[in-house]
Amino acid sequence: MTTRVAIVGVTGTMGRLVSGLVEQTDGYDLVAGLDSKSDLSEMIGADVVIDLTLPRVSQSVVDFAVDHGLRVLVGTSGWSQGRIDALASRIAGRDDTGVVIIPNFSMGSVIATALSVMVARFYDSIEIVESHRAGKVDSPSGTAVRTAELIGRARADIGPVSAPHTDQRARGQQVSSVPVHSLRLEGMLARQDVIFGGAGETLTITHNTLSAAAYERGILLALAATRTATGVRVGLDQIIDLGLGTRDATSAGADVPA
Known about the structure:
The chain has helices at residues 13-24, 55-67, 81-91, 107-119, 142-154, 216-226; strands spanning 3-8, 28-34, 48-51, 71-74, 98-101, 125-133, 173-175, 178-185, 190-198, 201-209, 231-234. The model is unreliable at 249-258 (pLDDT under 50). Helix 4 packs parallel to helix 5 (142-154). The chain has two domains: 3-105 and 213-238, Rossmann fold; 107-210, Dihydrodipicolinate Reductase, domain 2 (2-Layer Sandwich), CATH 3.30.360.10. The strands form two sheets. The chain has a six-stranded parallel beta sheet with strand order 2-1-3-4-5-11, sandwiched between helices. A five-stranded mixed beta sheet has the order 7-8-6-9-10. It starts with a strand and ends in a 24-residue tail after the last strand. The protein is globular, with a radius of gyration of 18 Å. The chain is an alpha/beta fold.
């Protein structure tokens, strides 16, 4: 059976990438491509809506889609845990809609985050440095926020990380007690370093995105999962089993170039 897809934000970098993937992949039909001048009603008739807009626009796109019984794949940053929880409550018990939120479509990124969560129990000193292109509109990145939140969850029985002098602005923004530092640079695509410090040693888990091709496999996996999704699921780690204990029984946690 063919899945009808509408893309909101089709003219952006990721919009062009995703539209190309949808058009060349068997089982999908791109029935609508919406830009900033489009009316949201143009998505009606699709089975799945892919949101690749901006943080200030994303929630209105998702609200409209779920109000009309459509399933949504969100690839837009800015979805805080509070917004996610509210959305999960709003669509709880409905079988005609579901939302999949992906902070990062890269397989390498989700694996690096899972490894960071596994390591987090063994080090009390942890910081994140995330780097993106100069034009990225939000910071910290959705990937960094989710990584920090999962680290905080993994350390729930241990306590917060050791992060001295966080009253100083140069110490970054704390997310689940983890200091996060954001770089926005010309010539950069995406990179994240999770740095662990211990007695006499440091350990760094790095993921470096070199081209948008890194997102393609994750996009298709997420799109396939969205076709039958109910409730709210967050992250590729909730779609694929990495065998590292990061998969939630239920998930209620986006980050790609705009």
